[in-house]
């Protein structure tokens, strides 16, 4: 167990000795200093938790020492004592950072009580500061950067939801607007920040496995269930469960989740016991769930439970004030990551960015800036020509069919290419769209056809005429 150290600073030896005896009896380690200069020397050598400071000292006075202390040793809690008892003196010392105030003559029991309170306050401050540091580090990694009024309103919603007891939040917005980042911000700004943040992508996990992933299972619940396993909901206990792409979730799994959303109770597959779980649920989608419910592809009762609070992220084209600050942020971030020194953007480059429609939103802007930083060996500043070149490379890589994500591109860049062909452009786009659907569906053509909203025979025909060959297809 750590023993706290108290420093007594007083020019009267008798007072120092009486205070020291009382505090040693209370279980503290005690050091003494007869002047401000002596106190500073002790602070340079020893870790002090609480200082009991007489305001009337020879040499450096108590008020001056208090100022120096808060500049150089802000973690030290200070209790001031003086024979000149007045409200003004007390207020002035508290303004300068003192924790508490004691007039002479004082009761030694009262001194011990105030020291205990100062130490408790220090512990609480230390815990809170540690919590804030963790938040700051995590948010620096995935920083929300904005300037627009629209995003200011979103941030205000995030802050209010984070500190509230609301346990279900729906985040909506187009692909690439930053829905996962919003979920992380809500988590990190809440009192759940030091608890798990569990992400579930409803598309990435096959519907046949999603239920067991979410709810877990008991040993022997089904073939290959060789041991008991906690579901992701239970793993998020005390923290936040983020359900991404909720609009694509299987209707059957929606029904299973409905009860959990209503009363936060789960039961593992093959189990009999029910368990209450304290979890904040944040769901996200780029789809119109009301329309999906009307069309019968999303449960209306599930939508009503999810839509307790809706935070909608506007597309980048509707908050153009954010584009320059985001571009600068990403440039600084990737300059540091890739050890480059691109200085910034020319005025014509900013105009280019502002006039582009950004169908891929913030993600598209981020990817484009990183691409320029990585491959722009001769680039010292980003011009509009550099940006146009980046779009051209995206289109060229699209022809090769070797990119992982479907790139967004400027129509102008296609139309004015010397080798432009309408048929080729449509074929290239179709080829890449199908490749992406196949990748998401783990190369299961039946699932890919469903995702593309076409029957399997049409997909097979398109794969054949577009020359998509992959041994992983089934």
Number of domains: 3
Fill in the CATH topology of the largest domain: Rossmann fold
Looking at how many chains there are and whether they match, the oligomeric state comes to single chain
Main β-sheet, spatial strand arrangement: 2-1-3-4-5
Give the beta-strand count. Answer: 14
**Roughly what is the average pLDDT, rounded to an integer?**
83
Largest sheet: 5 strands, parallel
> Do you know the CATH architecture of the largest domain?
3-Layer(aba) Sandwich
Task: Determine the strand fraction and express it as a percent band.
Answer: 5-15%
CATH superfamily of the largest domain: P-loop containing nucleotide triphosphate hydrolases
For the record, give the distance between the C-alpha atoms at the N and C termini, rounded to a whole number.
Answer: 64 Å
The top level CATH class name of the largest domain: Alpha Beta
Descriptive key words:
50% helix; 474 residues; 5-stranded parallel beta sheet; Rossmann fold; alpha/beta; 14 strands; 12% strand; elongated; Helicase, Ruva Protein, domain 3
Structure, explained:
Helix 13 packs parallel to helix 15 (361-375), helix 14 crosses helix 16 and helix 18 (422-440) crosses helix 19 (445-451). This protein has helices at residues 13-25, 36-45, 62-72, 87-95, 108-141, 149-162, 179-188, 207-215, 232-235, 251-263, 289-294, 300-306, 322-338, 347-355, 361-375, 384-400, 411-415, 422-440, 445-451, 456-465, and strands at residues 5-9, 29-33, 50-54, 77-82, 100-103, 168-172, 197-201, 216-217, 229-230, 240-244, 265-266, 275-276, 280-285, 310-312. The model is unreliable at 132-138 and 398-410 (pLDDT under 50). It is an alpha/beta fold and 474 residues long. Strand 11 (265-266) and strand 12 form a beta hairpin. The longest helix has 34 residues, at 108-141.
């Amino acid at each position: 167990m750590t023993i706290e150290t108290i420093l007594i600073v007083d020019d009267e030896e008798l007072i120092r000795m009486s205070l020291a005896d009382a505090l040693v009896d209370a279980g503290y380690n005690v050091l003494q200093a007869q002047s401000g200069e002596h106190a500073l020397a002790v602070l340079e050598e020893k870790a002090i938790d609480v200082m009991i400071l007489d305001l009337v000292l020879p040499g450096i006075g108590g008020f001056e020492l208090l100022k120096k202390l808060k500049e150089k040793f802000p973690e030290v809690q200070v209790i001031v004592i003086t024979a000149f008892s007045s409200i003004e003196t007390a207020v002035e010392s508290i303004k300068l950072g003192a924790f508490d105030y004691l007039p002479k003559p004082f009761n030694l029991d009262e001194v011990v009580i105030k020291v205990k309170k100062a130490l408790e306050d220090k512990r609480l401050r230390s815990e809170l500061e540690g919590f804030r540091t963790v938040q700051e580090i995590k948010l620096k990694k995935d920083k929300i950067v904005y300037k627009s009024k629209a995003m200011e309103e979103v941030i205000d919603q995030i802050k209010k939801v984070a500190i509230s007891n609301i346990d279900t939040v729906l985040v909506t917005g187009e692909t690439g607007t930053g829905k996962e980042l919003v979920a992380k911000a809500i988590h990190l700004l809440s009192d759940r920040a030091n608890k798990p943040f569990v992400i579930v992508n409803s598309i990435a996990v096959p519907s046949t496995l999603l239920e067991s992933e979410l709810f877990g299972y008991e040993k022997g619940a089904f073939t290959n269930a060789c041991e008991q396993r906690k579901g992701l909901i239970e793993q998020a206990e005390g923290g936040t469960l983020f359900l991404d792409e909720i609009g694509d979730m299987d209707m059957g799994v929606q029904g299973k989740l409905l009860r959990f959303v209503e009363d936060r109770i789960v039961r593992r597959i093959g189990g009999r016991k029910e368990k209450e779980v304290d979890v904040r649920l944040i769901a996200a989608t780029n789809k119109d769930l009301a329309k999906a419910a009307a069309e019968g592809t999303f449960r209306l009762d599930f939508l009503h439970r999810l839509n307790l609070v809706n935070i909608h992220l506007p597309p980048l084209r509707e908050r153009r004030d954010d584009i320059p600050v985001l571009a600068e942020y990403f440039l600084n971030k990737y300059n540091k990551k890739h050890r480059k020194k691109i200085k910034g953007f020319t005025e014509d480059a900013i105009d280019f960015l502002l006039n582009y429609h950004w169908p891929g939103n913030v993600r598209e802007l981020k990817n484009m800036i990183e691409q320029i930083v990585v491959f722009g060996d001769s680039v010292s500043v980003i011009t509009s020509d550099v940006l146009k070149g980046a779009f051209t490379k995206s289109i060229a890589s699209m022809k090769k069919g070797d990119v992982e994500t479907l790139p967004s591109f400027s129509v102008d860049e296609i139309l004015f290419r010397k080798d432009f062909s309408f048929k080729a452009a449509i074929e290239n786009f179709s080829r890449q769209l199908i490749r992406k659907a196949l990748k998401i569906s783990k190369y299961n053509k039946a699932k890919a056809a469903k995702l593309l909203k076409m029957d399997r025979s049409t997909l097979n025909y398109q794969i054949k005429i577009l020359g998509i060959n992959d041994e992983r297809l089934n």
